[in-house]
Amino acid sequence: QHHNKQHWQQQLLSKRAHGISAFWEPGLRVLVRPDGIGNLQFFASGPLLAPSGSRINVHFGVVNDGSMSAVYREHPVVPEVVAQPALHVDLNIG
Q1: CA distances (Å), 68 to each of 39, 44, 71, 80, 92, in order?
Q2: Contact in structure between 62 and 40 (CB atoms under 8 Å)
Q3: Cα(92)–Cα(18) distance, rounded to whole angstroms?
Q4: What CA dihedral angle connects 56, 22, 84 and 59, to 10 degrees?
Q5: In which element (H, E) is residue 23 found?
Q6: What span, in angstroms and rounded, lies between the C-alpha atoms of 2 and 8?
Q7: Rounded CA separation 86/57 (Å)
Q8: Other C-beta atoms within 10 Å of 85: how many?
């Protein structure tokens, strides 16, 4: 019976290995931009658990480029804090 269980598990794993699977999770990117010319950069990322128990992948960065204008923007003032929602997608094709 133990051999049959192992055989069944191997069949199940081999079936899962073929085809397409996708995994996604919400994320958030936060960038703090104090005064400077961009010579200091710090980035970190990791999971943040929401009160509902769901996981949010958070990327946090500090770049001191606030003294440099964003010439390609409509308003050339660099915002001090920027937050952007994101969606992390992991796609496996096997």
Answers
A1: 11, 23, 9, 12, 41
A2: yes
A3: 9
A4: 50
A5: strand 20-32
A6: 10
A7: 9
A8: 9
What letter represents residue 71's amino acid?
V
For 4-33, write each residue's pLDDT tens digit: 666 666 666 555 555 777 888 888 899 998
With CA atoms as reference, report the closest residue to 62 among 86, 38, 85. 38
Q: Smallest Cα–Cα separation from 69: which of 29, 30, 32, 37?
A: 37
CA-based nearest residue to 61, from 77, 82, 47, 76 = 82
pTM of the full structure: 0.58
Per-residue tokens: 29? 């990117």
Q: Which amino acid is at 80?
A: E
Q: Can you tell me the distance from the alpha carbon of 21 to that of 94, in angstroms, rounded to the nearest whole number?
A: 8
